[in-house]
Design brief:
The chain is of the alpha+beta class. The chain has a 6-stranded antiparallel sheet with strand order 3-8-4-5-6-7. It has a two-stranded antiparallel sheet with strand order 1-2.
């Protein structure tokens, strides 16, 4: 009996197997009916170590940069500074005034004293000046201290020929080798030499030496003012 119906049983078993869907089928409609509202499509797998970690803006930026193949996107390299930005901004500087030289100072101060009366042993504008008092007063304005008398002033510093005297130098007058007068050169132009001095007749004044027969006949020597400046 069993042998008689065996082919029929095999046929029914095969028919039943074909009509039943296999487990894990990719049929979208069947899976949708079985799992309502859920898609069978899997989301991309997160890199190891990143899953289960809350991404900060910095880490997201870093991951986006690492995934890029552009070398310019490397976050560890600072952008190169341009030549203009690497230089510090220029600041305007106030022009410095030209320092007053010793000759310039002597000339400026001497102009203030023109017309001051002569006085023997005088050494101030209020009292008056003799010749060595005037030279000592003017040089003191340049922080150069001179001896009191014209004879003593002629013995200091570097002596040179009268004709070689320059602006600011002391020039001495006398007879023979005896010093009787001193002045300061305030202008040189070729053979012309103008001095400021205090004369017994007219007080403090400017005179051109070579145009005066009296002074040109009594010239002796000069002393370089630069040799009188102490460091």
């Amino acid at each position: 009996m069993i042998v008689k119906y065996c082919p029929l049983l095999l046929f029914l078993f095969a028919l039943f197997s074909c009509s039943t869907p296999k487990h894990g089928s990719n049929d979208f409609t069947t899976n949708k009916s079985r799992v309502k509202g859920k898609s069978h499509v899997k989301s991309p797998r997160k890199p190891s170590g990143v899953a289960n970690r809350k991404a900060s803006p910095e880490s997201t930026y870093f991951l986006d940069r690492v995934e890029s193949n552009d070398p310019a996107d490397t976050p560890n390299e600072a952008p190169a500074l341009s030549e203009s930005s690497s230089k510090a901004p220029l600041r305007a500087t106030r022009p410095t005034s030209t320092p007053v030289t010793v000759p310039g100072l002597l000339i400026n101060e001497s102009k203030k004293l023109l017309g001051v009366k002569y006085r023997y042993a005088g050494d101030s504008p209020s009292r008056g000046f003799d010749c060595s008092g005037l030279t000592g007063y003017l040089y003191a304005k340049a922080n150069i201290k001179l001896p009191r008398t014209s004879t003593e002033q002629s013995r200091i510093g570097k002596r040179k020929k009268f004709e070689q005297a320059d602006v600011g130098d002391l020039v001495f007058f006398g007879t023979g080798s005896r010093v009787t007068h001193v002045g300061i050169v305030v202008e040189r132009a070729g053979r012309s030499m103008t001095i400021v001095h205090s004369t017994s007749s007219k007080g403090v004044r400017y005179d051109e030496v070579y145009s005066s027969a009296y002074w040109s006949s009594r010239k002796l020597w000069a002393v370089d003012y630069q040799s009188l400046i102490r460091p």
